[in-house]
Write a structure and sequence with these properties.
The protein is of the alpha/beta class. 19% of the residues lie in helices and 28% in strands. It has a 7-stranded mixed β-sheet with strand order 5-4-1-8-13-10-14. A 5-stranded parallel β-sheet has the order 16-19-22-25-28, with no helix packed on it. A 5-stranded parallel β-sheet has the order 17-20-23-26-29, with no helix packed on it. The longest helix is centred in the middle third of the chain and has 13 residues.
């Protein structure tokens, strides 16, 4: 049976270990980490694809993939359960030349070139599965076409003191990129790559083949592919993004992104009906706040039972808060039980944990956010 041709195919890189998230990713792939009371991090990128009418998505998983693979399933929550296209899980596999883990972002795409080729795609959209944002990728594609670009990189301004964490570029008055440095020690600019790229597939394919043959390459888009394209004079343009975007690669940034949702003027706006964030959620009864309980400036999901006080916090499904307990500035992940007379202040409590009666958990006065996993 012939595969339907697609103008653009999305390749979502979701195999990172996320070691800076420490306990949170010890048994879980970073894109599968819970976020925002009812979502997982990967929901935002998958929902962006769905809302942008991109219906063919390859999800490249690798580290601790079981939960993530099961969660994505056939893509039904994101309207990606399609006969032609839809979502496909792409894991490292054993072939005629053996098998091994993906060695870098570019190698991951190289190993799955056949997946893109079978759709005869003109463009390929490369995405990361570990960022929180809402973006219309169709506008990015339109920008790419208007500029007659070989490659387009979505960029955002970041604070200068954080610029060393990103791929940083300089652009001219036409938004054409003329310099690109991957995680520079002394950045010249604060214009950072978002890890969102569109390439003309025929051009990228040739560069991937050449990169694979280079034994000295790191097989990485930021370190190898993009610099080589620039050196060869290809047309690479920036697409400047001015909305909310957060790289939740550290415990603090994950906590901050959750707290951002509780602000009156939060930029992400999960209540926007024109750009819904879809997720795969369990069916639970409505949340319940008893006569002894109180909730202020917080998010509660289904199945929560609150007998204590909750303030400026995010509660996932199935959370229980006991009598005379206080939860402040915290993230409480699914099916946590907090017994009576407990204080949880500025912390992340991981799924399924039981916090015993009379316990005190607080990050107040500390730079790091406490993560409780047992």
């Amino acid at each position: 049976m012939r595969t339907q041709e697609k103008e653009i195919v999305a390749m979502l890189l979701a195999g990172g270990q996320g070691s800076r998230l420490k306990k949170l990713t010890r048994k879980l792939a970073k894109p599968a980490v819970p976020f925002g009371g009812k979502y997982r991090i990967i929901d935002f990128t998958l929902s962006n694809c769905s809302n942008s009418d991109i219906d063919t998505v390859g999800v490249l998983t690798q580290y601790q993939p079981q939960v993530l693979n099961s969660y994505i399933g056939i893509g039904s929550p994101w309207d990606l359960d399609r006969r032609d296209g839809g979502v496909t899980i792409l894991q490292p596999y054993v072939g005629p030349k053996g098998g091994r883990w993906y060695r870098g972002t570019a190698n991951a795409i190289y190993e799955n070139m056949d997946f893109i080729d079978k759709y005869n795609a003109e463009y390929v959209l490369i995405l990361s599965g570990d960022h929180i944002y809402k973006m219309d990728y169709s506008l990015l594609l339109e920008h790419h076409k208007q500029k007659s670009a070989d490659a387009t990189i979505a960029v955002i301004e970041v604070p200068f003191d954080e610029a060393h964490r990103f791929g940083i570029m300089n652009i001219d008055e036409n938004e054409k990129i003329y310099e690109f440095y991957e995680k520079p020690k002394n950045p010249k600019s604060n214009l950072a790559s978002m890890g969102v790229y569109i390439f003309n597939w025929k051009v990228l394919k040739q560069y991937l083949i050449e990169d694979e043959e280079d034994g000295n390459s790191s097989n990485d888009f930021g370190k190898n592919i993009i610099p080589k394209m620039l050196n060869n004079g290809l047309n690479i343009y920036a697409y400047i993004f001015n909305a909310y975007w957060k790289d939740v690669g550290t415990v603090r940034s994950l906590w901050e992104a959750n707290m951002d949702l509780l602000k009156k003027d939060n930029e992400l706006n999960l209540h926007d009906r024109s750009w819904k964030i879809y997720s795969n959620n369990p069916t639970s009864p409505p949340h319940y706040v008893s006569s002894t309980g109180s909730v202020k400036s917080s998010m509660l999901n289904e199945g929560c039972i609150v007998h204590g006080q909750v303030e400026n916090s995010v509660l996932f499904p199935g959370v229980y808060i006991g009598k005379d307990s206080k939860v402040i500035d915290s993230i409480i992940m699914p099916n946590v039980k907090i017994e009576d007379k407990v204080l949880v202040n500025k912390a992340i409590v991981m799924s399924g944990v039981i916090v015993k009666q009379g316990s005190e958990i607080s990050s107040e006065g500390q730079d790091e956010i406490i993560v409780i996993n047992e």
